[in-house]
Specification:
heterodimer; A: alpha/beta; six-stranded mixed β-sheet; four-stranded antiparallel β-sheet; 9 helices; 37% helix; globular; B: 311 residues; mainly alpha; two-stranded antiparallel ribbon; 16 helices; 72% helix
C-alpha cells in the first residue's frame, strides 16, 4: 500500500513546549486510522499541521509524495485534504443545506460566480442534496445550522467535510459531546462514508472501545511524540501504551 | 409575489415622483438613493462578509473628486460618473490589498486610517482638490453619447432620472451578487473564516473582491454627488461621513438585503426633519438611532421578517 500522507521529523513548538516533536509517520491509503493519546499529547496540533491550519517549525509533510509543508489550507483542500474541528465549526447563520452547498460549490470551482442564482447551480444542488441524505440531515435542510442540536451539528460538520469529496479527511473528535449510542452510530457512518466515497479517514477519538473496534491502524501520541503505531492488536499489547493510560484496560 | 408587486409599485411611484412632488422632495430622494447605494456597498462588507469598515467615506470622496475633476475638464455626465467609479475601483483594490490581511478591530482601524488619509489629501493637496475650499462650479453636464442622443441635465428632474436609473441598476446587481454562489461564499467567510478556508476557498481573495465592490458602490454614490451640488469639499471623506452607512445599516438591518435601503430612508428623513428644529440635531439623531437600534436589534426590517415576509 502507498502512504497517502507522510511526515519527516515534523515539529511544532510553543516557546519551550514541544506540541509536536520529531514526528515521522507514513499513513496508508484506505486504512481507517485513529490517533489517540492523553490530553495534551499533540493530537490536535498534528491534525492542524497536516491540514495546513498551522505551519510547522521543523520537518516536512508529503501528500501522495508531493511536498505540502507550507501550502495554504485552501490549496490543500483543492488537492483532496479535508477536515473537521474539535470545537464545532459550521456556518451558523446559514441553513443546513447552504452549509453543504457551499462546500460542493467550492469543489466544483463555482464560488466566484457572481451573476448566477444558487438555484441554477443544478449539479451542486444535486450533490448537496445527496450529501445531506448521507449524513441523515435531509429533513432539516432548511433549518438554520446554528439552531440544530449538538449531535446534528456534528453530523453537519461531517457532511461539510465530505462534501468537498476528499481523498483524505481528518476528523478531530467527531463524536464529542454525544452519548455512547450516538457515538457508535456516527463512527459507523464515517466507516460507511469511507467505503462509499473511497476516502481515507484519520480520526482523533477518546472512546477507546470505539477506536479499537473500528480502526485498522492506531497511532498513539504522548508529549508531542509518536509513542507507538500498529494494528489494534499490537497497540493493545504494548506495555508503554498501557502505562500512559495508567494501566487502564484498553 | 407580494414582494415583487410592492417593488413594482415603489418603482412606479419613484418614476412618477417629479410629476406629483416638488423640487425639494426630488432633491431629498436623490440623497436617499445615494445613501442607499453607499450603505448597500458598506453592508456587503459588514453584513455579508463580517468586516466593519470605518473608511468608506474615503472611497465616496474619491468617486466625488474623480467625477468632479473629469466634469471640469470634459463636461460629459456619463464620462464623469463612470470615470469617478473607475478611479475608486483602482483605489479600493489597492487599499483593499493592504486592509484585508487583517480582521476585526485591526481591519476597522486600518480602514479608518486610510479614510482619514484620503481626507488629509483632500484637505492639503490644494492644487488637485482645491483644499478646504473644495472644487466648485462643477457643471451638471448633458447626458450624451455622441451621435446617438443628448439629454439636457440642467433641470434637476432630468438628473433625478439618471440617479434613479443608476440606483435601480446598482440595487438589482447587488441583489444578484448576494444571492449568487459568490454571495454565499461571502456569508461563509462572515460565519467562519476557518471553516471557509477548510472547504477550499481563498478567504483573502474573496475579502478583496468584497472590499473592491464596496468601494465601487461608495464611488458610484460619490460620483453622482458633484453634478447635483456643483461642489465637493473635504468633509465628504471625513470619518463622520463613514458613520452614515454604518448607522443606516444598523437601523434597517444588517443581515437583510433591504435593510440598508430602509435604514437610509429612515436615517435621512430623521436627519432632515430634526435639523429644521435644532442646531443640536446630531445629539437628537444619536438618541433616536440608539433607541431604534436597541428596540429593533435586527433592524427595522426584522419586524417584517418575523411576520414571515421576505424583505
Amino acid at each position: 500500500m502507498n502512504a497517502i500522507i507522510r511526515t519527516e521529523k515534523l515539529g511544532k513548538y510553543f516557546g519551550a513546549m514541544a506540541a509536536v516533536h520529531e514526528v515521522t509517520l507514513a499513513l496508508q491509503e484506505g486504512l481507517f486510522t485513529s490517533v489517540i493519546g492523553p490530553n495534551g499529547a499533540g493530537k490536535t496540533t498534528l491534525i492542524n499541521l497536516l491540514s495546513g491550519f498551522m505551519l510547522p517549525d521543523r520537518g516536512a509533510i508529503y501528500f501522495r509524495e508531493k511536498e505540502i509543508t507550507r501550502l495554504e489550507t485552501d490549496k490543500r483542500v483543492k488537492m483532496g485534504i479535508s477536515r473537521s474541528f474539535q470545537v464545532m465549526n459550521i456556518f451558523p447563520r446559514m441553513t443546513v443545506f447552504q452549509n453543504i452547498l457551499l462546500a460542493v460549490l467550492s469543489r466544483l470551482n463555482k464560488t466566484s460566480s457572481a451573476f448566477s442564482s444558487l438555484r441554477s447551480q443544478k449539479e451542486a444542488v444535486g450533490e448537496a442534496e445527496k450529501t445531506l441524505g448521507e449524513v441523515w440531515l435531509q429533513e432539516k435542510k432548511d433549518s438554520p445550522a446554528g439552531e440544530l442540536s449538538h449531535g446534528d451539528q456534528r453530523l453537519l460538520e461531517l457532511g461539510i467535510a465530505v462534501a468537498t469529496n476528499p481523498q483524505l479527511c481528518f476528523l478531530d473528535e467527531p463524536s464529542s459531546g454525544m452519548n455512547p449510542i450516538e457515538r457508535i452510530k456516527v463512527l459507523e457512518l464515517v466507516k460507511k462514508l469511507a467505503a462509499e466515497r473511497n476516502t481515507t479517514f484519520i480520526i482523533v477519538e477518546h472512546d477507546m472501545d470505539i477506536v479499537f473496534s473500528l480502526s485498522d491502524w492506531i497511532v498513539v501520541m504522548n508529549r508531542g511524540e509518536v509513542l507507538a503505531e500498529g494494528t489494534p492488536g499490537d497497540i493493545r499489547e504494548n506495555q508503554e501504551v498501557r502505562d500512559i493510560y495508567l494501566g487502564e484496560e484498553i | 409575489m407580494k414582494t415583487r408587486l410592492a417593488i413594482l409599485i415603489l418603482v412606479i411611484l419613484l418614476a412618477l415622483l417629479p410629476a406629483y412632488a416638488g423640487k425639494y422632495a426630488v432633491y431629498v430622494v436623490i440623497h436617499i438613493l445615494l445613501l442607499s447605494i453607499f450603505s448597500l456597498g458598506f453592508n456587503l462588507l459588514f453584513g455579508y462578509t463580517g468586516l466593519l469598515s470605518f473608511g468608506q467615506a474615503g472611497f465616496y470622496a474619491v468617486g466625488a473628486y474623480g467625477c468632479a475633476k473629469i466634469l471640469l475638464a470634459y463636461p460629459s455626465l456619463l464620462v464623469g460618473i463612470v470615470g469617478g467609479v473607475a478611479i475608486t475601483g483602482v483605489v479600493s483594490l489597492a487599499l483593499g490589498y493592504l486592509c484585508i490581511r487583517h480582521t476585526r478591530i485591526y481591519f476597522s482601524m486600518l480602514t479608518l486610517s486610510f479614510g482619514m488619509m484620503i481626507f488629509s489629501l483632500a484637505w492639503k493637496w490644494r492644487d488637485m482638490t482645491g483644499g478646504d475650499d473644495g472644487l466648485v462650479g462643477i457643471p451638471r453636464a448633458a447626458l450624451e453619447i455622441p451621435g446617438l442622443f443628448k439629454i439636457n441635465m440642467t433641470p434637476m428632474e432630468n438628473y433625478y432620472y439618471v440617479v434613479l436609473a443608476f440606483a435601480i441598476l446598482a440595487i438589482a446587481l447587488f441583489h444578484r451578487i448576494v444571492h449568487s454562489p459568490m454571495g454565499l461564499t461571502l456569508q461563509g467567510i462572515r460565519d467562519s473564516e476557518t471553516r471557509t478556508a477548510c472547504i477550499g476557498i481563498s478567504v483573502r481573495k474573496y475579502r478583496l473582491i468584497a472590499f473592491t465592490i464596496a468601494g465601487l458602490y461608495a464611488g458610484l454614490a460619490g460620483a453622482m454627488l458633484p453634478p447635483l451640488e456643483s461642489t465637493v469639499t473635504p468633509p465628504l471623506a471625513h470619518w463622520s461621513h463613514s458613520a452614515e452607512p454604518v448607522l443606516a445599516t444598523l437601523l434597517g438591518g444588517i443581515y437583510t438585503f433591504s435593510g440598508p435601503i430602509v435604514g437610509s430612508v429612515i436615517f435621512y428623513l430623521l436627519k432632515d426633519i430634526i435639523v429644521r428644529f435644532t442646531e443640536y440635531w446630531q445629539i437628537c439623531l444619536g438618541i433616536i438611532v440608539v433607541a431604534l437600534v436597541m428596540g429593533f436589534r435586527g433592524g427595522v426590517v426584522s419586524i417584517f421578517l418575523r411576520k414571515g415576509g421576505r424583505p
